[in-house]
Write a structure and sequence with these properties.
Distance between the termini of chain B: 10 Å
Shape of chain B: globular
Strand order of the largest sheet of chain B: 1-2
Order of helices and strands of chain B: HHEEHHHHHHHHHH
Radius of gyration of chain A: 27 Å
Number of helices of chain A: 15
CATH architecture of the largest domain in chain A: 3-Layer(aba) Sandwich
Strand content of chain B: under 5%
Largest sheet of chain A: 10 strands, mixed
Strand content of chain A: 5-15%
CATH superfamily of the largest domain in chain A: Periplasmic binding protein-like II
Distance between the termini of chain A: 67 Å
Helix content of chain B: over 70%
Number of strands of chain B: 2
Number of helices of chain B: 12
Structural class of chain B: mainly alpha
CATH class of the largest domain in chain A: Alpha Beta
Shape of chain A: globular
Oligomer: heterodimer
Number of domains of chain B: 1
Number of domains of chain A: 2
């Protein structure tokens, strides 16, 4: 049947067109089928929320646990093992997988929200997230209630953290570590920076860094304005701080707005002063070998944040997670972790235990703040969904130059 | 894949004979079709659905299916400067990559042809940066351009720049980063066309009294058009959607935000998924239209 085509180019093109038409009919049928399948698949995305029920606890038969946490946030030895965690495994026989999965509250939430909305396991039986994100988890019903019977050591929690606005009585969460956001400056290159207003000095023009974490940057500016960020501040008070921030970004006084990478800017000299986190400066100075940077709680006040253990709604190993939390609330264990991570431990008695490790450590106000230091700091209050939406959008608009 | 859409009629009409369509061919295509449906068509439909969703009035970060086409209007109204900036940066980066990449490809493909060993070495040098992570290389530039770094130090020493001024966070830094990161994508396709260029054609042009410039314009350039074409597309498309170089964490600042950064912020920080989806689709449509126009205009459909 393979007959040569007629020579006439017109007929040839007619035949070619006929062939195409034939193909397109078939292609269309195939396309319709494929499209329908794709549509069906695409429709599988989770819709609306119903009341979520916690997954059944299977800890008794399943001695394993997944713990998701931030980088450099637990004691680590030279081989990359976690000594306190190894001891926990020996003591309890629970096999813990420690996942360094959280790099940012928002991006972690974006990663797991679909499973949470369906009440499914997110691959972590406990995860440490910051206060405001924990607030969102609790509001959305994405957490399981803690059984304090399994966590007798929870009694060691310092009183100042026992009744946060987002979780009175600590029903859903328990703190892991905390820290301050304050100001820091390069002691060799610039005069002392004692307050947020000092950051706006002309000699620091274009050499100031601030954090992309809204609650810390806007928080310390609000505190400088005399607003209590833990109280019921108004939108006007928030916007007043936001206006200062916008003005300083647009005028170029603020060099850049960054996440944890602000430390690089301090090191390479792009910034000489910054709004920054307490633990980082300890690490930077340790790397430099001397106190090149100085961290201060600004005169107006510092923000105090905590990262908290929560148990996601889909976890089937709740008791194991509670056993782990209980273990880290032993003062000796908490002291060992705090000595490594340089953040504030929420455990009473850890200071006394730390003296045994290193007496100098126990004097460090950024690890073991006394009443006076804590009085200089405030926790940013939980925002309603609507406030969260509005404030974040306004803050991000500045970051995006929109 | 998108290119075939534009090259359809020209090639189909030129096909000489009708080969009988065998069911086996279709059968062999199944894995490919399945793959495309699962990993391209499905996400695309999901993206379209998401882009039309409306926020749930009760729960933050939740969205309900709707036909909220105003999402597109809103994002365009809010983010048009970033969209235009992305196009501008990508166009500049493509231009610079072409200006740097073409002579380089010419040098490797034609000048070095008598020395195969050096030629392969030069080619390896073009590809070698790929062995190091894109992110690390970009971060390295950030250090080099930092205020206390060598570039600013040198420029301020010769008085070209006031001391303490900055390069990072400027338009220059972002376009530089884009150009640097995408140059290999420009060099390799051009090299591939030039390396197979018949040198006798250049000699013939020379014999016919063509000056080097004329030879280049009438012989070399048309014969390497396919490479230039693929090179510019391979550079422009990813550069327009890039969000690393312009990111505040890398070479950018709040002044240099590109559309990719806006999509990232809307998706990860603001949890505004409809806005992010709408922007992604707008970016996609914009690139598709631009590429179609480019392919049509340069009249090189059959080269793709």
């Amino acid at each position: 049947m393979n007959r040569p085509l007629p020579e006439d180019p017109m007929i040839r093109s007619l035949i070619a067109q006929a062939k195409r038409a034939q193909m397109s009919r078939r292609a269309m049928l195939a396309g319709t089928g494929a499209g329908a399948t794709a549509l069906a698949l695409a429709a599988c995305t989770p819709a609306g929320t119903t009341e979520l029920t916690p997954a059944e606890d299977n800890s008794a038969n399943d001695p394993t646990l997944n713990w998701a946490n931030w980088p450099f946030y637990i004691d680590e030895d030279d081989e990359g093992n976690y000594p306190t965690l190894l001891r926990f495994e020996e003591q309890t026989g629970i096999d813990v997988t420690y996942l360094v999965d959280v790099d940012d509250n928002n991006s972690y939430f974006a990663k797991v929200r679909d499973q949470l909305a369906l009440g499914q396991d997110i691959g972590a039986d406990t995860v440490c997230l910051t206060d405001w994100m924990v607030n969102r988890f609790i509001q959305l019903g994405y957490t399981q209630e803690l059984n304090k019977g399994n966590i007798p050591n929870a009694a060691n929690l310092v009183p100042s953290l026992q009744n946060p606005q987002f979780d009175p009585g600590r029903v859903h969460s328990l703190p892991w570590q905390g820290g301050f956001a304050g100001v820091c400056y390069n002691t060799e290159e610039t005069a002392e920076v004692r307050s947020v207003s000092d950051l706006w000095r002309p000699d620091l023009a274009g050499r100031v860094g601030v954090l992309s974490e809204m609650r810390d940057t806007i928080g310390v500016i609000m505190l400088e304005n005399g607003v209590d960020i833990s109280g019921d501040f108004t939108a006007d008070e928030f916007n007043a701080a936001l206006d200062i921030f916008r003005e300083k970004v647009e005028s170029g006084q603020i060099r850049n707005v960054r996440g944890n990478a602000y430390t690089e800017d301090l090191v390479n000299g792009d910034t000489l002063a910054a709004i920054c986190w307490s633990g980082d400066i300890t690490v930077l100075n340790a790397e430099a070998g001397y106190e090149k940077w100085k961290f201060l709680l600004p005169e107006g006040g510092a923000t105090l944040w905590n990262d908290n253990f929560i148990i996601p709604i889909g976890s089937t190993r709740k008791t194991n997670a509670e056993t782990l939390i209980n273990y880290y609330y032993e003062p000796e264990v908490a002291a060992e972790v705090a000595a490594w991570v340089n953040y504030i431990t929420p455990v009473n008695g850890a200071k006394e235990a730390a003296i045994a490790i290193d007496p100098v450590l126990a004097e460090n106000q950024l690890i073991f703040p006394n009443e006076e230091t804590l009085a200089q700091s405030r926790i940013f209050r939980g925002l309603t969904a609507q406030e969260e939406n509005e404030y974040q959008a306004a803050f991000q608009a500045i970051l995006l130059g929109a | 894949m998108a290119f075939t859409a534009f090259s359809g009629p020209a090639t189909a009409a030129a096909e000489p004979a009708a080969r009988r369509r065998s069911p086996i061919a279709l059968f062999l295509l199944l894995p490919g079709i399945f793959y495309l449906v699962l990993f391209f068509v499905t996400p695309l439909i999901s993206l379209v659905i998401t882009s039309l969703q409306a926020p749930d009035p009760l729960i933050f970060g939740q969205y309900v299916n709707a036909f909220n086409w105003q999402n597109y209007v809103t994002v365009l109204e809010t983010y048009w400067p970033q969209a235009i900036r992305s196009g501008g940066y990508a166009a500049l980066a493509t231009l610079f990559a072409l200006l740097i990449g073409f002579p380089l490809a010419y040098f490797i493909g034609i000048t070095l042809r008598p020395y195969p060993l050096i030629q392969s070495l030069a080619l390896v040098l073009v590809i070698a940066p790929f062995f190091i992570s894109f992110l690390l290389r970009t971060l390295a530039w950030k250090q080099i351009f930092s205020t206390e770094g060598p570039v600013v130090g040198l420029l301020s020493a010769i008085g070209a720049m006031p001391a303490g001024s900055s390069i990072t966070g400027t338009d220059f830094a972002v376009v530089f980063g884009l150009t640097y990161n995408f140059i290999p994508f420009m060099v390799l396709p051009i090299y591939a066309t030039l390396v197979s260029l018949d040198l006798r054609l250049l000699e013939a042009s020379n014999d016919l009294y063509g000056s080097p410039a004329t030879t280049f314009r009438t012989v070399t350039l048309p014969l390497s058009a396919a490479g230039v074409m693929s090179g510019t597309l391979l550079t422009f498309i990813p550069a327009a959607g890039d969000y690393i170089n312009a990111s505040r964490e890398f070479l950018g600042s709040t002044e240099t935000t590109m559309i990719g950064n806006v999509i990232e912020a809307n998706f990860l920080v603001l949890q505004n998924f409809p806005a992010a989806a709408a922007l992604s689709l707008i970016l996609m449509a914009f690139i598709l239209v631009l590429v179609a126009a480019y392919v049509k205009r340069s009249g090189t459909e059959d080269l793709l």
